[in-house]
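Aim 2, interim progress: modelling of the iron/sulfur cluster-bound target.
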Amino acid sequence: MTEPRKLHIKSYGCQMNVYDAQRMVDTLTPEGFVETSSAEDADLVILNTCHIREKASEKVYSELGRLRETKEDAARNGREMSIVVAGCVAQAEGGEIVKRERAVDIVVGPQSYHHLPQLLKRAKAEGRAIETEFPAEDKFASLPQPKPAAIRARGVSSFVTAQEGCDKFCTFCVVPYTRGMEVSRPVARIVDDVMRLADNGVREITLIGQNVNAFHGDDENGKPSSLGALLHRLAEIPGILRLRYSTSHPRDVDDALIDAHRDIPAVMPLVHLPVQSGSDRILEAMNRKHTSADYRQTIDRFRKAREDIAFSSDFIVGFPSETEDDFSATLALVEQIGYAGAYSFKYSPRPGTPAADMQETVTTRVMDKRLARLQDLIDSQQAAFNAAAVGKIVDVLFERNARNPGQIVGRTAYLQPAHVIAPADIIGSVLPVSVESLDRYSLIGTLAIPHAGTPHSFAMTPGA
Ligand code: 5AD
Ligand code: SF4
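Predicted structure of the complex, ligand included:
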């Protein structure tokens, strides 16, 4: 028997990259690879890269510099190490990467991971292999399985791709160029994935996609399905207790999605709905195709459907021409909505995007200041949101043993981590927790109903 080869993957960026990294592992396992947590003893290192902001892609080149030294050390010890650059930097820069960093053996774009075994062979024969083509047509329908490879269950919660790509062309964003046009997976494929995951112990599904609520995959009758209809279908699958989806565009929120929050208890009351700015002038320059009033109305529609619904968002500060007044409009919007959490970023011009040709008007110093003010406001909203859970009874889906022995950690409907002392067999169940205190972002509590030793909130009913 040959020794298994060791594979180390480092993922940057979004949830889809986390999911893609898992799929790469699942594609390479049959080739005799096992995962290792350190790059030093790996035979194959994959950097699954992110191109969304300059910092994210620069990190890749500094990591590659370090990996070159590791590779040279390995070679001195008679060991061969291959380096793969995958993800959106691979897609955007292609062959430029190998010019800039000679240690790279393979460059592979997000549409081609299922070819990794062949690319490894090609790189061995030819020294290098680069594949960053977009498939000509429907990237899901035209590709043989696995793309996406049937993803293996890893614990209680799993991502499943619903759609990929984006046609919105916000002027600052590289996604339409790196992930391509919006394509939805057929409902039947998603249902298959979710059924298999549920059979293997997964209780929570997060449907992912760069513009997930633009989902329009064909249903069983060949008709386009809405995300709301898909959520209805998935909620019927035995074992599935919680459904989430991310990331949504405010323009694509339809009534079916709003109604899903009202009608399906498994659909969690936390919506990630990026707005980017509170200024209509900036929203227009960003080509967001909605105003701040449209956004507020959308939030109200959600709130009418489910009053305990909470929101998170993304913001960019310092977009070209952003004035102090524009920035104040962003702060005012945040004040008005009240978020459970949000991400905020300094604008970073991305090559090839329309905004990269706009005159940058906001200095780094001003950007830093605006970012700090916005983050302070968001942090205080998040702290208040978490503090409001103390003294309440909240449902928690238990996921795994915590670091402290005897403690089990799970998540609330709002993704807050929650810790209790309890037997490990509660993992995979949703149980009510009486929240007693807050430890930074984590809720600390006790099971509200004494636990007899077997999960009681969900029992698998095979075939039922
Ligand atoms: N500069 C700064 N932030 C950006 N984002 C996307 N592109 C850029 C950019 N060029 C942010 C947006 C998006 C999130 C994923 O990253 O807020 O919603
Ligand atoms: Fe990028 Fe999101 Fe805009 Fe699409 S909707 S272009 S992914 S910011």
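Residues 52-53, 172-173, 274, 276, 314, 316, 345, 347-348, 350 surround 5'-deoxyadenosine (ligand 1) (CB under 6 Å). The first helix runs from residue 15 to 28.
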